[in-house]
Amino acid sequence: MPTNIEIKARLADPPKTRAIVEAISDRPPLTLHQRDTFFRCSHGRLKLREMGQGQAELIFYSRPDSAAAKQSDYEITAVADPESLLSVLSRALGVPQTVVKTRVLYLVGQTRVHLDSVDGLGDFLELEVVLRPGQDMAQGQAIAADLMDRLGIRDEDLCSTAYADMLSALAAD
Fold it and tell me: Less Cβ around it within 10 Å: N or C end of the chain?
């Protein structure tokens, strides 16, 4: 199963962060419009990510709810008929939350840098250090820490939960 080291942080100054990321990125960014439908799942998280024009992926991932750089194990499969799969999984498992966001994706070395504008929540940065074969968690955490430093991300900016959980917490208030 592929593994990332991940962090998520709330952005105080999105234009400043974007300028820094653009300066260190390996290639031009890709803008993605994503709708993530989360399904009830006994362990980990299961979501259908729709990206428009019939493109979709079913994603399972497991990671701790922690603000620190953390290991995330995941599996992704392409979905040929997202509308039907959404119907079946919604009926079978239930849908606790849907997240709609615009994601600007940059690549910095082996790290995917996401600048996310999440409907109902605001602006965030995610780092996903894609571990290579033979790399351990400590190496990935060191890469994440270096990028956090370069991007001006402080420990107090870090978020411990998924966007879906943040939206659920807002709805409960």
Answer: C
